[in-house]
């Protein structure tokens, strides 16, 4: 771009030099005329470079072609100048202003190329009517230009021809004027496509100036050493170079075809052309009738063209008025439709000023508020006080024009109730047709109520109405954060409550009774806590209470209150039930988060269960150590079988009164490599919780059946008749347990009648899969013994549903058999029940001879306990059996009865 400006400056400097030389030579010849011709071709060469550079920068093919045509025009003019130099200084004698035919051909060729370039300028897409109008306008301008050109030619032909020696000179000048008028009319009437308007105006004006300068030849008649080309050609070069630089800048800025000014809806150029032509007619009418007829005829032609132009305009105006009428009719139809929609719409539409004072309210707003008019009413009067701050925050977000915000708030009804609305507010204060804040509101009360209901259901227990696990977890996280931040000066505690033996009640009496019991427990917990405490049902029969602002004394009192509240009998679905609960309490410390707090409460709750239930335990660091101990014990127990650390001992079941061995009960023992002998009371619960009891139980069963088969093979009739093996509730729930028992009996070749599976009452109390398993075992031929009989919820009722062959009386009843009559009543009743149902009865835990004698008196024939034998390895059992038979078993000494120890 900078190079183009420098070239333009050099072109202007050469043009000034050429005009200065002509002025200096006007009085007389100072320097040879050839010097005055040198700047002219130099000007054309520089201008050609500028034009070609502009054509290369054009963004489209048409624009570049136009500026290349202009470069060709200047190239032809440069050649014409060289030819003029030859004509002036050589051909017609020196000096001379005459032009040869080749010179005039070159000038005329340049003018023709200029006209061709102008006519090829793109015209925007127009309708047929626009094209007709454009054609008439151009015809008027060209006709006026032709009339003026004819008048000028008629008056100036003689002097110009005399000076130049040819009438072609005058024709070329007129053609240049005609070309300039064409360019101006084309740009003014039809536009220039992607070309810059001002560049084209500059070019057209330059051509006019050059044509006027070229018509000054008669003034130089007395000075043949001067030529009008010294002025006209440099002026054209400077103008075209200026137009090219202007166009190049427009291309660089991307402003081509964009800077078109918004012109009037009509053009004045045709009318100006008529005025000019009429002026020449008035001046040119004289004595020559031929000239007069030509001028008058041209004037009549122009009048007819203008008349046609006006008729077309009138037709267009009539057509436009018809379209306007149709548009107005459609607009009124849309207005009526909009008014009907607004009047009958349930949505509320309101417009308020910048102070939120209503300036318009739709009929639905009037119906909702029960007012005759809402004009001048402040929106704050209709909004719920609790939502005012929300509205104020939304209004602060409407500062920018056209900004929109959406919010939900409550609006007042005439009866004093509130309804929820979703309000979309838009700032149209800048819009002259509105000048306000537009609010469109939709009643969402029912959907909001439904959403609130769904939200409540998602965060609350459906049965009890208490908070559910997810809501309780969220509240716990919030409370822990507040405790860490120091907001809870009284501290934070969490209580976890688990109902004892709830499953038995649920299975025995049905889920309806269980649900009613849970509802009553939830209500007791809710009435026991303080305001601000959070009560939740985590699932099943597990409840939790979050106790913010709770000191150690307060949490202790609340835990005691829970125990007392749950101790009273519960009336549920017509049943009066006694319910107990184990409660774990944990206090928040800086080193625990929400999950740790719940985990600690859970550990404390299990500690309460292990301590005897119906009590509460507060978490302490020792519980973590106990949990770690249990976890390590579980890990070691999972490898005990592979390490061959488990063994099976057998405790004989004897006949009364002599103590002869009739059967044995298999009891698993664990000798830990570092802990030594681990009590079954310690590792069996661990196996139950981890599920290892299934694997261990199957191993014990196979080991025991193998031993029973070995005794039968070795001792024949002296072998123990029954092998009793304990089965846990977890084993009875295994779908493959019956198949496992059948497979072991088959592998060991042990008759099913020689095997007794001992179960507890609680294992089958709920019925379901466990009871089905027991029935399948009984159908297989396996005997079923009910262990710890009399300690369960409904032992007698169980005898009607569960197939039982043996009743094993719990040691707690046997201990009182030598006491009062009341103490031995249960043992007596069980013996009578067994006799009536033709069941075997085995008294467990016999530790004294007096107990054995009294049990015999009460009708018991089988007993088991330390008075007779302790659990012992199979070799000792074999030895004891051999001693009874008076036979010394090979490889085993005589066993000593436990009562002798």
From TrEMBL:
What keywords are assigned to this protein?
A: Membrane, Transmembrane, Transmembrane helix
Q: Does the keyword Membrane apply?
A: yes
Q: Which Pfam families match?
A: EAL, GGDEF, PAS_4
InterPro entries on file: Biofilm_reg_signaling, EAL_dom, EAL_sf, GGDEF_dom, Nucleotide_cyclase, PAC, PAS, PAS-assoc_C
Question: Which Gene3D superfamilies does the record cross-reference, listed alphabetically?
Answer: 3.30.70.270, EAL domain, PAS domain
**What's the superkingdom here?**
Bacteria
Official protein name in the record: Diguanylate cyclase/phosphodiesterase with PAS/PAC sensor(S)
**Segments forming domain PAC:** 405-456
This protein's record includes keyword Cell wall biogenesis/degradation: no
Ranges annotated as spanning the membrane: 7-24, 30-54, 66-86, 101-119, 131-153, 165-187, 199-219, 225-245, 266-286
**Where does the record place the EAL domain?**
630-885
Question: Can you give the residue ranges of the GGDEF domain?
Answer: 490-621
